[in-house]
Design goal:
By secondary structure, this protein is α+β, with helices and mostly antiparallel strands. The protein has helices at residues 2-12, 16-20, 56-59, 126-129, 132-136, 164-174, and strands spanning 21-26, 37-42, 47-51, 64-68, 70-72, 75-76, 92-93, 98-104, 109-113, 118-123, 145-148. The chain is globular, with a radius of gyration of 18 Å. It is found in: Cell projection, Dendrite; Cell projection, Growth cone; Cell projection, Lamellipodium; Nucleus speckle.
């Protein structure tokens, strides 16, 4: 009997992400249908940029060929060097700053954007060597980047983002559910 109760408790325990982060979403990034991004905001104001579970890379069973943090000839997110307590030296990003480009084996290419203003703390170099992390664990090991918004902007950065409920409402209106045969 105790085993059953213990199992119920384990199933209801929230994940670390659900416990310590607030999920925010940017739907249809740059007016591209379904290119949704998720921002995980920690109470210490650090934000983790990930793909939303509705992004075409995750939804359509794509295989990732390459992930490139080289944004232009003069700008590579891999060259980001942060130092000190106040994280000096990190590249400053606007909300539409590209973080990386992901190319799939079917040659479709997706640009992942920062979605918020702030200082780039780090990019996830692990996904360069193991791109499947992006597919298998998008909210944890497969994150894209970590951004620290300015302190004075930390409350307002989410104004242009959608809460989970708002995002689910947007997603539910995209395509009608398949009709059930009668």
């Amino acid at each position: 009997m105790e085993q059953v109760e213990q199992k119920d408790v384990e199933e209801k325990a929230p994940s670390v992400i659900d416990r310590y982060y607030t999920r925010w979403y940017r739907a249809d990034m740059k007016d591209k249908p379904c290119e949704d991004h998720c921002i995980l905001q920690h109470s210490n104001r650090i934000c983790v940029v990930t793909l939303a579970e509705t992004h075409p890379i995750l939804q359509e069973g794509r295989t990732i060929q390459t992930i490139n943090y080289q944004i232009s000839n003069a700008c590579s997110r891999l060259n980001n060097k942060v130092s000190g307590k106040s994280k000096r030296g990190g590249q400053f990003l606007t909300e539409f700053a590209p973080l990386c480009r992901i190319t799939c084996t079917d040659k479709t290419e997706y640009t992942i954007y920062s979605c918020i203003r702030g200082r780039l703390l780090e990019v996830n170099e692990n996904i360069l060597e193991t791109p499947n992390l992006l597919l298998e664990k998008p909210s944890t090991d497969g994150y894209i980047a970590v951004i620290l918004p300015k302190f004075e902007e930390s409350k307002s950065i989410t104004e242009k983002l959608l809460s989970r409920e708002q995002f689910e409402s947007v997603v539910s209106k995209r395509s009608p559910a398949p009709s059930q045969p009668s």
